[in-house]
Amino acid sequence: MRQTKPLAWGRQVSPGFRERLFQLCENLGWSEDQASDLMAIIAFETGRMFSPSVRNPRSSATGLIQFMAATAKALGTSTKALAAMTPEGQLDYVERYFRPHASRIKTLEDMYMTVLWPRAVGRTLEYVLWKTGTRAFAVNRGLDLNRDGRVTKREAAAKVREQREVGLGKGHRWDPPKKTVPA
To answer: In angstroms, how far is the first alpha carbon of the chain from the final one?
Structure first.
């Protein structure tokens, strides 16, 4: 995939990471805009560190898209092995994770739901993921932006959308080289 548009957070990663990310998107049939969507998810999930070893202190979630231990096992690895990988190497597992869902992912929100709550993929933005009184709500209460006791798909993805916009700002985005015209 030859990039013609800026990449969110592209300056925060190596050229090899960008190259592997673009290849991942091409392999999954995604547009170059979706490369920025994926970078926004990685920025959010890693606290803008883009490190394969980032771990959630409250769970087994590890890495670029916060793989849970059971998910890592289903992919033929472990969170310990994922944490020891290079960022570029872990993108192989990110691709493997998204592959079964790739054709259903049309929006940033659906891409993020694939990571957070797959049953919400393809649902409206007002789809309720969790309500007060459930364990899932208790763990994710910070996503209830309007404090109404419900987390919608829109609310859950809002911080990722914000990461996309910040990541496309000056100082963070990577701009593809300009095509040179022979003299």
So the answer is: 26
